[in-house]
Design goal:
The chain has 211 residues and is mainly α. Among the domains are: 76 residues, no CATH class; 63 residues, no CATH class. A two-stranded antiparallel sheet has the order 1-2. A hairpin with a 2-residue loop joins strand 1 and strand 2. Helix 2 packs across helix 3 and helix 2 packs parallel to helix 4.
Amino acid sequence: MQLPEPCPECAPYGGNWRMTENGMRRCTCSRGVALRNASKPPVPQAPVVPLPTALLLAESLAVMEFFPADAMARSAIAEEICSICRSESEARWLCQRMRRLYRKWPGVIEMRLVYCSQGIPLDGAVVNSISPHYPDGIPSEHTAPFKQLAAPEVKALPAGHSVSADTRLETAMGIAAGIQRVKDLDFGAPATAEEIAAAPEWLRKLEGYDS
């Protein structure tokens, strides 16, 4: 069962609660009503996802750090997937969401919480706790869970600068270029009158052109 979208009152709290004078309570919107109904004693339903399929999907979670290596633990995780998901496509979605949201295995309670952020589990056991990893609610699928760095602002160089806005660095780079030019003059053909006239004053003096 797909939960309705959260309203403005419960959206800041992951769509699970709203703030009232008496503390956090279920919202009065359609999503809150669905969550209240889900909190009623669940009606037992037979698993839809075959256990072998769930076992394969559980293996895909091993890319996360600290995922259990023990076969019994992985079998328990697969059984939890069968208890939660209403179809094989939901099971694939859940495992994909877990891989995208977490670098380290957070446990089966957190996995159920991820599912509950979008729908009511097959067994009706809705998790009402707040995620320690996402205290503001499980991120939307349309929002990146990790902050993206803004591109650095590139400013134009001041007039007369070709390398850096820093005057000292600009001067140092000019001197380095001049020294290379000195080497070229030392080992190349004699400088022409045009090259001498275009050279900076300090270079002309260094070369003895200005006495």
